[in-house]
Amino acid sequence: MTTRRDFLRIAGAAGLASVAGVARGAAGGPAMTMDLVCGNLGVKADLPTAVALAHKHGFTSLAPDAGELGRLSDGQLGELLGDKKTKGLAWGAAALLVDFRGDDAAFRAGMADLPAFASALQRAGATRVGTWIRPGDERLTYVANFRQHARRLREVAAVLGGHGVRLGLEYVGPKTAWSSMRHPFIHTLAETRDLIAEIGRDDVGLVLDSWHWYTAGETADDLRGLTNRDVVACDLNDAPASVPVDQQRDGVRELPCATGVIDLRAFLKALAAMGYDGPARAEPFNATLRTLPADVAVATAARSMKQAFALIG
């Protein structure tokens, strides 16, 4: 794992400051955004603070917090949106709070709260939500789990779609994750696309993560044929060195370009080729990063993200 000294070295590295925090899509089209998700870095910050941190360190979007947005008065929201616009920031993707993986009571409780969640995002002009698929179950077989996911996520997407919000689904690729459960479930891009097809809504797409793409044994060829509309959000991560791919564990990752284990150049070039214009954010699950002061953690993530975006060329 990268040391604290390495993080500080990356944060202060010269030569990356001039790298733009955006990456152009195909034929110079709309840019994917360098997205700040404070929680992914172990940073606690309300939205005004996150806006300030994003602007200071060269991010071009930030994650919306539907709960916080829903508590703002019209005046407070107007002030926040005005500040965000002045700083040239877009919204990234919010995290779905509905528990669709567990029992029916939990799912129904989440669905009862979903209209307010979606309304808060719509009121603020946010249009993307993402969630992840647990890659196995101790009780449900693959087919039973697939049917339940399709049915429940179709309900979720209908509510979100009614508020102009798209839903992205992320598969979890590591073999150490899906093989640890009695009934392995979706853990590849192809399977996730099958689920999206079964849901049958054009406002449901993918959350692509370089970590899961790598641990699923996928290449740039697997991304060819996808369009901008197919992808709702993107995560950029690297993997610890000297660990075989089938032994990589989901809770131990690295910032983009920290080790070079994952071919981020191929991953990002595929996104650019499809004209992807959504958020790209770091999600390293890195214990060392979480020990850093908030400003240093965000600066470190920004340097790594800019280094990754520079690979597109």
Automatic annotation (TrEMBL):
<keyword id="KW-0413">Isomerase</keyword>
<dbReference type="GO" id="GO:0016853">
    <property type="term" value="F:isomerase activity"/>
</dbReference>
<dbReference type="Pfam" id="PF01261">
    <property type="entry name" value="AP_endonuc_2"/>
</dbReference>
<dbReference type="InterPro" id="IPR036237">
    <property type="entry name" value="Xyl_isomerase-like_sf"/>
</dbReference>
<feature type="domain" description="Xylose isomerase-like TIM barrel">
    <location>
        <begin position="51"/>
        <end position="306"/>
    </location>
</feature>
<dbReference type="InterPro" id="IPR013022">
    <property type="entry name" value="Xyl_isomerase-like_TIM-brl"/>
</dbReference>
<protein>
    <submittedName>
        <fullName>Inosose isomerase</fullName>
        <ecNumber>5.3.99.11</ecNumber>
    </submittedName>
</protein>
<dbReference type="InterPro" id="IPR006311">
    <property type="entry name" value="TAT_signal"/>
</dbReference>
<dbReference type="InterPro" id="IPR050312">
    <property type="entry name" value="IolE/XylAMocC-like"/>
</dbReference>
